[in-house]
Amino acid sequence: LIIHRIMKEVIKGKMKEGRKKHFDERLPEIAKECSERERVAEDAERAVEELKKVEYMQQYLGDVFEGIITGITNFGMFVELDNTVEGVVKLSSMEDDFYILDDMRYFLLGERTGKQYRIGDIVEVRVARTDKIARQIEFLIVNKPSRKKQQKTSKKSGKKDSNGNGKKSNKKKISKKKRLKKNDRG
C-alpha cells in the first residue's frame, strides 16, 4: 500500500523533496519489518497446516497407504502420500536390515540385503504414530520400494498388488479431493 501511495504522488506530481527524503530514510526499515512479519505469518500458516494434517491422519492409524519417497536423511526418509500428507520413516523402525545413507547419491542401502530406497521410489507405508505437539507423522515400511519405470500393470484390471501381480490391492488411497478444509478446526 505504501508503494501505491508513493506512485500516486509521483504520477500526480505531488511528491515534494521533503516527502521524498522521508521515504528514502524510512522505506528500508518499513520493507524489512514487512518481510519479517510475512515470514512469521508463513511460519504460522505452515505450522497450522502441519497440525491439521496430523489431526486428520489420526483416524488412519494402522492403515496402509501408497506414497513416494521425497527425501532421504541420515535418520530415515520422508514419504508423501497422494493427499500431500508427509511423514517420516525412521531408520530405527526398519528392522529387516541395517541401512546406510549414501549421501553422494542420496539413497539408503541395506547392508545385508542390498535393498535400496531412493527419492522417487514408490513404497507402501503403515501409519504408525501421530504427534500433535511435534506436528509429525511416523510411517512404517510394509513393502520393498518400486520405481515408476519398472512398474507393469495387468491387462485385466490395470492394477497390481504389492507383489506386482495383476490383482487389485487392498491398500487405502486418499483422494486428492479429500483435503483438509479451512473450517475443519477438529
What's the arrangement of secondary structure elements?
Layout: H1 2-11, H2 17-57, E1 64-73, E2 76-81, E3 86-90, E4 99-102, E5 107-110, E6 116-118, E7 122-131, E8 136-141
Antiparallel strand pairs: 1-2, 1-7, 2-3, 4-5, 5-6, 7-8
Number of strands: 8
Mean pLDDT: 81
Shape: elongated
Which structural category do the helix and sheet elements fall into?
alpha+beta
Order of helices and strands: HHEEEEEEEE
Radius of gyration: 25 Å
Largest sheet: 5 strands, antiparallel
Highlighted features:
186 residues, alpha+beta, OB fold (Dihydrolipoamide Acetyltransferase, E2P), 2 domains, five-stranded antiparallel beta sheet, three-stranded antiparallel beta sheet, elongated, disordered C terminus
Report on this model:
With 186 residues, the protein is of the alpha+beta class. The protein has 2 domains: 2-56; 61-150, OB fold (Dihydrolipoamide Acetyltransferase, E2P) (Beta Barrel), CATH 2.40.50. 27% of the residues lie in helices and 26% in strands. The chain has helices at residues 2-11, 17-57; strands at residues 64-73, 76-81, 86-90, 99-102, 107-110, 116-118, 122-131, 136-141. The chain has a 5-stranded antiparallel beta sheet with strand order 3-2-1-7-8. A 3-stranded antiparallel beta sheet has the order 4-5-6, with no helix packed on it. β4 (99-102) and β5 (107-110) form a beta hairpin. The longest helix has 41 residues, at 17-57. The protein is elongated and about 75 Å long. The two termini are 36 Å apart. Mean pLDDT is 81; it is low at 149-170 and 175-186.
